[in-house]
Each structure stands twice: as structure tokens, then as C-alpha cells.
Design goal:
- By secondary structure, the protein is an alpha+beta fold.
- The strands form 3 sheets. Strands 8, 9, 10, 11, 12, 13 and 14 form a 7-stranded antiparallel β-sheet that branches. Strands 1-2-3-7-6 form a 5-stranded antiparallel β-sheet. A two-stranded antiparallel sheet has the order 4-5.
- The radius of gyration is 17 Å and the shape is globular.
- The chain is built from 6 helices and 14 strands.
- The longest helix has 23 residues.
- It starts with a strand and ends with a helix.
- Bound molecules: thymidine-5'-phosphate and aspartic acid.
- Aspartic acid binds next to strand 4.
Length: 239
Amino acid sequence: MPQKLYEGKAKILYTTDNPEVLLTHFKDDATAFNAQKKGQITRKGEINCAIASQLFKYLENQGISTHFIAQTAPDQMQVAAVKIIPLEVVVRNIAAGSFVKRTGIATGTTLKSAIVEFFYKNDDLGDPLFTEDHIQLLELATPDQVIELRQMALTINQHLQKFFSDRHLTLVDFKLEFGCDQSGNILLADEISPDTCRLWDDLTADPTQKILDKDRFRQDLGNVAAAYEEVLARVMSQN
Ligand code: TMP
Ligand code: ASP
């Protein structure tokens, strides 16, 4: 019988009969600002599960190792059991969000080249930005693992930028999480979805209408579910 292993803000992890396999259930619940803002987005669980499944399959085809095994229900995914590295690895192509607050660079500014940031996954501390020295001090990952995470994140960025631009979406920034399997291999884990990416619609110039991701929920822009449905339709299209 599956046992609940862990419940997060957007997903629940269950064990299976096979210790190397877990089940991820995607919830409709949405939170922002470290869960100070809470709500629900209609069909989000199914939408994010379908988008993440499609993106994991695409990335696997491009040679990226992920935890994805199969989508087993509209809101359920079978994944490899990994030990999550407690870092949120953020890749940015265009200035937005916390990067704008930290640097003063205007929202929408295209960065000369993609940058990678590491945040410590710790709700009590509010997921602070970490330098490599912080990572070493807290032994969150080895120096070699940090190099590998950075390289994997930048390679994934190249593949995702192409995938989304073929579907008239600009990948502004996104957050990845990685885990280690039994043999110590690093696998891309968690999810990739409008909860974890900023995606702007290339088909409109209107700065508010362009936003097709969780910023609509964070900023109370309305039409949140419709934006997620639009991303799903584009992700599933053969372009
Ligand atoms: P930020 O600009 O707020 O640092 O967010 C950068 C990217 O990371 C953005 O695409 C949203 C995503 N993100 C998450 O997936 N989870 C989080 O908890 C936060 C704060 C951001
Ligand atoms: N997922 C984060 C939270 O609730 C924040 C965010 O995505 O903005 O708390």
C-alpha cells in the first residue's frame, strides 16, 4: 500500500512497493511568498503534471537524466526515488522577480548571458540566496556537484529555451531541483511547470497579458487558470 512520504505545498510524494520508485501527486493548491498567500488554481494539478511529464520526456530525449519514469494518472507521476539536494537552482535569461529587487536591473532586461543562482531550500529561513561558500560550509553539495548542477542547469536552459520559443513562449527564468540516486548520479527532479518558470507570451506585446505563469497568482493579475491552460496547449502542440 502506498504511504505518504512527504507533503509539500504543491505536491505529495508516496512510496510504492518498489523502494526505488515513488509516486508524485500534483495538487491544485497554490502558494506564494513562502505560503503567506494561499489559493487554488483550477485543474493545476493535472496541468502541471502533464506539462512536467512532457518536458521531462523532451529533456530525456536531449540526453538529460531526470527522475521521470511515467505519467500514471492525469495528476500523478512515477519517479525514481532520489535524495533531494536542498538547493533551488534558478536560471535567468531576462531580469524579473527577486533578481530585479536584488540588482536594480529593470524587469524585462535581457541578460548578456544566462546566469545561475542557488537558493537554500529552507522554508524557516525563507529560501535565502547562497554563495558557493555557503553551500560548502553547510555541506549541501560538494564543489564538483556544484559545477555539475550549474552545467546541467545551463544545458537544460538551452533545450527549454528552444522548446518554448518554438511555441511562441519566452523562458524568462525558472527553478530546478536535483537529486542523487543510489549510485550517486545527479538527476533532474521536482517539476518544471508554470509554477516554477516565468513564461511570457511572444504573441502579445501587452506586458500584463504576456504573463502566462504563477506571477498571475502572485500579483493577483486574474485569469490564472486560463494562463496555465494556454501553456499546456502550447507545450502539447507539435509547434
Ligand atoms: P524569483 O525571481 O522569485 O527568485 O524566482 C525565480 C524563478 O524561480 C521563477 O521562475 C519562479 C521560480 N520559483 C519557484 O519555483 N519557487 C519559489 O519558491 C520561488 C521563490 C521561485
Ligand atoms: N513556492 C513558493 C511558496 O510558497 C513561492 C513562490 O513560488 O513564489 O511559498
